[in-house]
Amino acid sequence: MIHKYRAWDKGKMVFDVWPTSNDTIGKWIDAGHEKRFHDLGGSKVVLIQYTGLKDKNGKEGYFDDTV
């Protein structure tokens, strides 16, 4: 299974986020010639894991999605 996540952060959905080993959730940002990890921070971020399934339109399904 592909380990992919999205997160709710301050009322908006953020895709392609990554949890780290120290309970940090963030997103890799392309900063020109390098990539930087942007910490979304805080306990108010809700992490949602990809199920590995897609709907009939090819949209990725995540836990807690309504089908």
UniProtKB/TrEMBL annotation:
This is YopX protein domain-containing protein. It holds the Pfam family YopX. Residues 4-65 form the YopX protein domain. InterPro entries: YopX_protein (IPR019096).
